[in-house]
């Protein structure tokens, strides 16, 4: 089928064609991936920077445990709203325009946090930053999934997760350096927050010259433009074959009018996918990963490190997250998603159990401090090497094309609201029942998560998005 004349008719699934694209085409795909994933870098930096900035901010702004939780979790509440709004916006106006809008929000939010004179302004600015973080958490993986060839989708989408953890490592490292240079001088935390404006500018200028998603263009019946984008990132033969498949599905979805919230509620197989998406999102968060990302410095201080040593030791968490994500990218091309997710859950649950046991059983001092650090590093190795890459990848794969952004956006709302709830109550839980019993609660949640994945989550590896949609429609109808 040739759809360059603006028409499309459904055909049988085209034969699989290996991608023998020229080197220039492969380089173009790499450039698109790097530029788009600056959204992930900002996601990581803006969620990780609070870890080291919070102790200094607490003194300057006079934060209490309640307002400390509000400053931390206001970003997460904004991210929940930003996820669903970003999903709808990307379905309506395209992935590229959405990412450009998010770059502006990242810049404005970071600047607002840097200049915030009061706690109230800080909470509002963090909420704005959260809108950008939530939108990026949805739009960037969808954009990468839709522009990637099937056999490289896992690796390319997971590059966003690599940039997320790289952003967190950058935050941890810059926090330690700025704290060392600035010492106890007032406002040192403002410099920590200001750095986030730089990648926001890079993202905005970079996306100005990037193409939109070919699958989104096809869903809008803009087949000529979709073909031109595919030619930038595929060989000519591969672009033709892939466009046939994409366009046939776009016509089918258009005939079914599949694409809105009403369709999502009224279509049984889509409802089942939403249930699975919600579950995957919750599974990723109730490991407690973001308690370590947001409160890691305090956890290490409670374990026995000094404040400065905790800041430096926390860099180990960032380093292992980046290294583990490289391993995750390698594994995604070689093993199935579902067993990889389950292995990660077993590893994180055991690490959390040991953090709780060590915090309870070992006497305060260097031994307990390094034992807890070893377990947080082990936890992050399994979390960032298996659970997080698979979570964002599967959420970018399972939803129908015409509601790709909306479906992932709603699942991400569940993810961010779970994150928000945990970030809000974690300080109070530690204060009320102690760090050991708090982590024991996460252990129970980890066991329940493992059962959910075993019973309900499908395998998605090795299919084009169109083939996967057809399989899931048949399986859950």
Structure, described:
The chain is mainly α and 477 residues long. Helices cover 82% and strands 0% of the residues. The protein contains 20 helices and no strands. The protein is globular. The two termini are 28 Å apart. Mean pLDDT is 82; it is low at 1-18.
Summarize the structure in short.
Helices cover 82% and strands 0% of the residues. The protein has helices spanning 23-36, 38-48, 50-61, 65-93, 95-115, 119-147, 153-182, 188-194, 197-207, 214-219, 223-233, 236-256, 261-266, 268-285, 289-303, 307-332, 337-361, 366-397, 404-456, 465-476.
Architecture blueprint of SSEs:
Layout: H1 23-36, H2 38-48, H3 50-61, H4 65-93, H5 95-115, H6 119-147, H7 153-182, H8 188-194, H9 197-207, H10 214-219, H11 223-233, H12 236-256, H13 261-266, H14 268-285, H15 289-303, H16 307-332, H17 337-361, H18 366-397, H19 404-456, H20 465-476
Helix pairs in contact: 2-6, 2-7, 2-9, 3-7, 3-8, 4-5, 4-6, 4-19, 5-6, 5-8, 5-9, 6-7, 6-18, 6-19, 7-8, 7-16, 7-18, 11-12, 14-18, 14-19, 14-20, 15-16, 15-18, 15-19, 16-18, 17-18, 17-19
Helix content: over 70%
Radius of gyration: 22 Å
- The H-and-E topology, N to C, reads as HHHHHHHHHHHHHHHHHHHH
Number of strands: 0
Major sheet: none
Rounded mean pLDDT score: 82
Share of β-strand residues: under 5%
Which regions have little confidence, pLDDT < 50, spanning 5+ residues? Answer: 1-18
User: What gap, in angstroms, lies between the N and C termini?
Assistant: 28 Å
Number of helices: 20
Shape: globular
List keywords for this structure.
20 helices; disordered N terminus; 477 residues; single chain; mainly alpha; globular
């Amino acid at each position: 089928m040739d759809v360059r004349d603006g028409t499309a008719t459904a055909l049988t699934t085209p034969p699989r064609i290996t991608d023998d694209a020229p080197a220039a085409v492969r380089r173009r795909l790499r450039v698109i991936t790097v530029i788009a994933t600056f959204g992930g870098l900002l996601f990581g930096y803006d969620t990780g920077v609070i870890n080291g900035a919070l102790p200094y901010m607490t003194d300057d702004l006079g934060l209490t445990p309640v307002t400390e939780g509000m400053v931390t979790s206001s970003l997460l509440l904004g991210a929940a709203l930003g996820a669903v709004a970003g999903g709808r916006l990307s379905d309506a106006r395209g992935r590229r325009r959405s990412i450009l809008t998010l770059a502006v929000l990242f810049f404005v939010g970071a600047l607002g946090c840097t200049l915030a004179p009061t706690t109230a302004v800080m909470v509002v600015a963090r909420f704005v930053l959260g809108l950008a973080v939530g939108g990026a958490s949805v739009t960037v993986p969808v954009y990468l999934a839709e522009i990637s060839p099937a056999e490289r989708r896992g690796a390319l989408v997971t590059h966003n997760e690599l940039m997320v953890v790289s952003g967190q490592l950058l935050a941890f490292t810059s926090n330690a350096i700025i704290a060392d240079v600035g010492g106890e001088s007032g406002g040192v935390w403002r410099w920590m927050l200001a750095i986030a404006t730089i990648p926001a500018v890079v993202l905005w200028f970079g996306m100005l010259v990037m193409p939109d998603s070919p699958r989104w263009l096809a869903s809008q019946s803009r087949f000529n433009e979709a073909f031109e984008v595919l030619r930038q990132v595929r060989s000519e033969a591969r672009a033709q074959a892939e466009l046939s498949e994409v366009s046939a599905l776009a016509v089918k979805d258009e005939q079914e009018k599949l694409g809105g919230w009403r369709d999502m509620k009224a279509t049984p197989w889509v409802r089942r996918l939403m249930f699975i998406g919600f579950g995957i999102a919750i599974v990723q968060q109730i490991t407690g990963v973001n308690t370590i990302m947001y409160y890691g410095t305090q956890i290490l201080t409670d374990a026995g490190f000094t404040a400065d040593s905790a800041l430096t030791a926390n860099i180990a968490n960032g380093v292992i997250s980046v290294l583990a994500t490289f391993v995750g990218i390698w594994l995604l091309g070689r093993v199935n998603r579902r067993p990889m997710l389950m292995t990660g859950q077993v590893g994180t649950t055991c690490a959390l159990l040991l953090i709780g046991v060590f915090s309870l059983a070992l006497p305060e001092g260097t031994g307990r401090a390094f034992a807890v650090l070893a377990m947080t590093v082990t936890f992050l190795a399994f979390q960032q090497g298996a659970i997080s890459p698979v979570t964002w990848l599967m959420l970018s794969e399972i939803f129908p094309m015409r509601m790709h952004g909306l479906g992932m956006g709603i699942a991400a709302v569940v993810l961010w609201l779970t994150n928000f709830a945990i970030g809000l109550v974690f300080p109070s839980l530690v204060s009320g029942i102690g760090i050991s019993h708090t982590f024991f609660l996460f252990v129970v949640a980890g066991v329940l998560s493992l059962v959910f994945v075993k019973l309900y989550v499908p395998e998605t590896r090795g299919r084009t998005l169109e083939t996967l949609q057809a399989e899931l429609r048949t399986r859950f109808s």
